Amino acid sequence: xxxxxxxxxxxxxxxxxxxxxxxxxxxxxxxxxxxxxxxxxxxxxxxxxxxxxxxxxxxxxxxxxxxxxxxxxxxxxxxxxxxxxxxxxxxxxxxxxxxxxxxxxxxxxxxxxxxxxxxxxxxxxxxxxxxxxxxxxxxxxxxxxxxx
Length: 148
Hints:
Blueprint: H1 17-28, H2 37-53, H3 61-83, H4 85-88, H5 92-108, H6 115-142
């Protein structure tokens, strides 16, 4: 019976290592930040449910709808980064814009928001801006900004 275990063998000596490496790079689209997709999605998900988590559905009805729509938008962008990263990383700046809007929205959309509502939107907005900047920086570094 032959020994088919690969324990102790180094892949560097494999005859197809360069081809496998090239294929992996093509599949990943040159992405350096594949781990940012999930945090972007989770920030969007939290943004969408935050009115119910913080119980401001009765006091800030306009912000409830606003946070739900903005959260869905962020989550969809996060899903898009996972599904088609080459096309979506050009939209990283949109996450930054949504983040800035989330920071100022309690005063624009809301009516006399309390500290909890303001702090919630400022944290969500700050995280969105930070994640958007990292995604945008990675796409510019990899040259995927203009690829479709």
